[in-house]
Amino acid sequence: MTSILPAEIPKLAADAIVISVHPKPDEGEWLLGPNAEQINQLTGGLVKRLIEESEIVTSPLSCTRILEPAGLRAKSLLVVGLGKPSEASPGLAFRAAAAAAKALATKQRRRVLMALDVEPQDEVVAGVFVGSTGQDLYRQQRKLFPITAPLIVDGDPKALERGEVLGQAINLTRRLVNAPPNEIFPASFADICVEQGTTCGFDVEVWDRARLEQERCRSLLAVAQGSANEPRLVIMCYQGAPADHATIGLIGKGVTFDSGGLSLKPSESMLDMKCDMAGAATVLGAMTALARLQIPANVIGLVGLVENMVSSTSYRLGDIVVARNGKTIEVHNTDAEGRMVLADVLDVARERGAQRLIDLATLTGACMVALGRNVAGGMTNDESWYADIAAAARQCGEPLWQLPMFPEYSEQIRSAVADIKNVGDGRWGGAITAAKFLEEFVGGQPWVHLDIAGPAFSEKGSAWLDAGASGCFVRTLVQAIENQA
Ligand SMILES: [Zn+2]
User: Fold this and answer.
1) How far is the CA of 450 from the centre of ligand 1 (A)?
2) Ligand 1: centre distance to CA 192 (Å)
3) Domains and CATH numbers, the chain
4) Mind telling me the catalytic residues?
5) Tell me: the pLDDT tens digits for 18-42?
6) 223 Cα to the center of ligand 1, angstroms
7) Regarding beta strands 400-402 and 376-380, do their DSSP bridges make them parallel or antiparallel, or are they unpaired?
8) Would the pTM count as exceeding 0.70?
């Protein structure tokens, strides 16, 4: 990434220059941001004229292309709309840059100048990385060509670095989720954690099946027992603060493929089930960013990696397993496997000294029924810890909505023969009964559960993001931990 001075813009032979604009106000003076104003003047008032003629659309994330604009040496000018100035936010800066980058990524472009008049710069840079990268990992003919070295006007080196690190972390998460389940399985995912630990600077410990048995992770092992691909539990340790500082635990569901097990999913709902490790991929992405940015905090990331398959060794309906913390679980549905995995991982996190916990999981379809595809559900046993996470999500513009945790919901997971069962009564409140199940394993520590079943993966994509994995909540996690530090 290169920073350039505003005075260099007129002579810049870029493939594209990107500026941002607000609509003309109903009253009062119409001011463009400094970069857009300079482009407006260099092009003889073209920008304002085209906005007045409604040729440039100023609604949020709309992109208008102007080819070979007179007065500039750039081959094209791309104008991205921001909506009203009152709507400005870091999240919008991220999405506006991503939308522009996505629009430009249809072919290879080497010199792209991001001259958006938005703050902060790190969100712009991260947005460029994310918006220009697609899910077409295996296509011989790419649809999107990543922009990996954008030019930035008056770039602040620290902000550029933070943006690049965040963008790459989000793209790592997306790549792992988008990669197929024959490539990403527990052992290969664990290997990637080890590699990332070495490159980024955090310690990684991997538990294989033998160690998991020794550690009594029977709930996790029950899910894994139907698959030829052996399970792993990965513990990533980043110590950026003195040892006496509190440790935050990030816990991710890593079901690398979820067939549903004996409670088999229908084909249509099974196709995208490579995405059932998105929670684990989010934790890994966040760990890479925290370590590379050397955030002064102590964080452990734990991911439980299994494949939920059908075979004569699969766990059955009616099975009772003893989880690591001693609670007995009756299996009522083998497709409610994520919580069985997280049960033991949460217990390990607590034992490893994580004082405050955040888990992320593509856990329930019920959460999508409740909140739709783009909003994550948040559940907690500690309102003040939840408020911290929700504040970070708002800062990043990542939609999160809290669901209640009334004690009555716990009644639904009582089992007649064991301590608890792994689903509630029917499908009512399914996102919450899943959270109530998890709460049984956090040992009373402050804990926030993020159900990302909706926003983690999209069949359709959007103006600013290709379809497939979104990498959502990597930014929120990093922001939340930075805010604590
Ligand atoms: Zn499942």
Assistant:
1) 16
2) 23
3) 2-155 (3.40.220.10), 179-484 (3.40.630.10)
4) 265, 339
5) 999 999 999 889 899 999 999 999 9
6) 10
7) parallel
8) yes
